[in-house]
Amino acid sequence: MILEIKPSPFMTLVAPLLRFDPVYHVLVTRSSDFFLTQYTIKATRLRLIKIRDESGTGLVTYDLGQGLRLELDLSKDLDAFMYDYLSRFGKYEGEVASILSELITKNTTFIDVGANIGYFTVLFSRLARTVYAFEPVPSIFGSLLRNISLNNLQNVRALRCAVSKEPGRVRIFESKISEGHDSTIKRSEHDGSILVDAVSLDEAVEPSAGSIVLKVDTEGSEMDVVLGAMRLIGSGRVSAIVLEWARRIYPRVTNLRDRFALYSTLGSVEVLDERRGSYKVRERHEIPDYCNLLIRVRK
Questions:
Q1: With 0-12 CB in 10 A as exposed, 13-18 as middle and 19+ as buried, what is 115?
Q2: Per-domain residue ranges for the chain?
Q3: Which CATH architecture has domain 90-297?
Q4: pLDDT tens-digit readout, 211-258
Q5: pTM for the complete prediction?
Q6: Alpha carbon 39 to chain centroid distance?
Q7: pLDDT digit string (tens) for 157-178?
Q8: Alpha carbon 219 to its chain's center
Q9: Where are the extended beta strands (E) located within 28-81?
């Protein structure tokens, strides 16, 4: 989950140089991460004050349509940001929701990795045959369960664990900005951590699951999720993968090349853009710094 924060004056000034990976890595990923984090923390604190002045700090219910609802606790930063975004725009990550609505049918197994409080899980539970919802952060998982129960969703399997390339235990670093920024990749915004169980999709998804659509939003560990699903993908049962791309948070320059190389071997890669619509990319440099990607898996 990426919070919408305007770029700092410094970032605007050096923007022309940032298309070069080594420059970006030195100026942003390494040197400026602390300062960008402090700027973002300040901006998000101010936004939270405004949200709570306008909407309070209690429980609210947001109507998703089709008889589906989302309960949000405005005393929690993550819920407050989500409620604010939905209230202002009427949808969240519209480009993702739009493509998922095209891909998911009554025969689909929808796998939501990084399910958060359940927005996409709930939204597409009525369209899909079965939903797997993975969320490792205990407090967020509690909100996910609450929203599944609120909507009486019988076809959803919620699992409190991380998803990685192999089963075991992983460390999740806790963000000072928002729980939605918790990640297995440590950055300046993180000041604590927890150990959680991890599974791979190859082991966690039932063999009977077919016509799989996969959505992955794991704050930087998306490639590990895909690597842990290679048997599943190789079986021909996965038709599409929607996943987050966030250039700043990858710890090494080579991560960019490795990720795009992996994704492009699986099928065609498209950038999801709410204004322009989706468009295919053949080179990694055609991808914006922050976006969601669609991989149409090659059979």
A1: buried
A2: 90-297
A3: 3-Layer(aba) Sandwich (3.40)
A4: 999 999 998 889 999 999 999 999 999 999 999 998 766 655 557 888
A5: 0.86
A6: 22
A7: 999 999 999 999 998 887 766 6
A8: 6
A9: 59-65, 68-73
